[in-house]
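Figure 6 in text form: structure in, sequence out.
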């Protein structure tokens, strides 16, 4: 295609301006013609013109039936990704993934750190990097903790700016927030107040202690938060979401899970994925015929509605959860685990809390938990 200007739409002045703003937000340069400058609001034939080379992208946007939905436009314009950080290596790893996701969605990033005043609780240590002298008064210690949090946030900011400058991460606008409180409570409340596109959180890898995993802030957020959460293990091999190709999707295979699939393909916009649909075992007796029929129905639906992706079916057995899980995730070299979350306490619904935390967190595979 050439770079000559072509007309992609003719609208009233107001709608032409709306379409222009939307296209330019997505990186398409737009010019308007035939505008009555003396009284633009009465113009009924404003041409929306773009470069011919931008036509494929413009058509995908224009063909969206909700293109002039005001709430949709506001959401896209103000899209944010929330990244809770504790200044550890694995939270920096989460930042790398978050910046790539934000760049794909033209979103900004909020780096959120929470600290707890020792006067409230001397039992909780938010980060291995923050240590206190027990002889210092609680009041002074609280001031020191806040000061140290601000200092380390400044260091993290400098690291990210240097990575942007070197090209290691995409150029994405980001802001920082430091709040006092219990980490999981601060994160969940902040998400409720700011409606992020998703949260990206770092987790310890497969070599960490089980008690650290089960008691982790990330687990608490996953159990409670009603926004998509993308977890990034410290030893994750994938540094760019563009490289996510093989996905395991745990499902009860009901209609609500289809919404989670839609959200997954939107949040991780890979051109082609290999998706393994894994049936979560039920404690209730279900006939093999009924299970087989539900599997076939979902697979047929996915193949029909998501032709760009490949789908296969697999199952877990209550009698061999560990071996089945390892077989599915290890043999296929999985890049991402996806799990729909319908209600609070996702892990109790999956199998039981202990087993689920051990299987899903004791892993070097990123995970996307999607509320539906």
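Output sequence:
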């Amino acid at each position: 295609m050439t770079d000559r200007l072509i007309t992609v739409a003719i609208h009233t002045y107001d709608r032409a301006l709306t379409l222009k703003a939307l296209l330019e937000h997505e990186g398409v340069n737009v010019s308007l013609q035939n505008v009555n400058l003396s009284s633009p609001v009465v113009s009924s034939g404003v041409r929306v013109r773009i470069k011919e080379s931008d036509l494929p992208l413009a058509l995908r946007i224009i063909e969206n039936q909700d293109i002039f939905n005001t709430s949709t436009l506001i959401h896209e314009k103000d899209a944010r990704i929330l990244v809770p950080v504790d200044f550890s290596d694995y939270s920096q790893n989460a930042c790398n993934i978050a910046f790539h996701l934000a760049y794909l969605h033209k979103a900004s990033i909020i780096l959120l750190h929470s600290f707890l005043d020792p006067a409230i609780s001397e039992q909780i240590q938010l980060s291995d990097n923050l240590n206190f002298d027990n002889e210092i008064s609680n009041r002074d210690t609280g001031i020191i903790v806040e000061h140290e949090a601000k200092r380390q946030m400044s260091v993290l900011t400098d690291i990210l700016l240097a990575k942007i400058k070197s090209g290691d991460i995409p150029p994405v606008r980001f802001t920082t927030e430091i709040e006092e409180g219990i980490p999981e409570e601060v994160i969940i409340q902040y998400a409720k107040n700011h409606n992020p596109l998703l949260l990206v959180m770092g987790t310890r890898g497969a070599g960490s202690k089980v008690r650290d995993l089960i008691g982790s802030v990330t687990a608490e957020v996953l159990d409670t938060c009603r926004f998509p959460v993308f977890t990034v293990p410290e030893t994750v091999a994938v540094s760019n979401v563009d490289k996510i190709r093989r996905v395991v999707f745990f499902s009860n295979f009901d209609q609500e899970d289809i919404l989670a699939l839609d959200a997954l393909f939107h949040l991780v916009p890979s051109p082609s994925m290999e998706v393994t649909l894994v049936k979560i075992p039920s404690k209730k007796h279900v006939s093999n015929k009924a299970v087989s029929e539900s599997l076939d129905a979902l697979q047929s639906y996915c193949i029909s509605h998501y032709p760009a992706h490949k789908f296969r079916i697999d199952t877990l057995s209550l009698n061999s959860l560990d071996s089945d899980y390892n077989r599915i995730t290890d043999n296929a070299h999985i890049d991402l685990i996806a799990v729909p979350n319908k209600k609070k306490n996702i892990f109790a619904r999956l199998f039981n809390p202990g087993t689920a935390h051990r299987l899903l967190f004791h892993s070097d595979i990123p995970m996307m938990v999607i509320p539906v």
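Caption detail: Residues 35-44, 70-76, 123-129, 209-215 have pLDDT under 50 and may be disordered.
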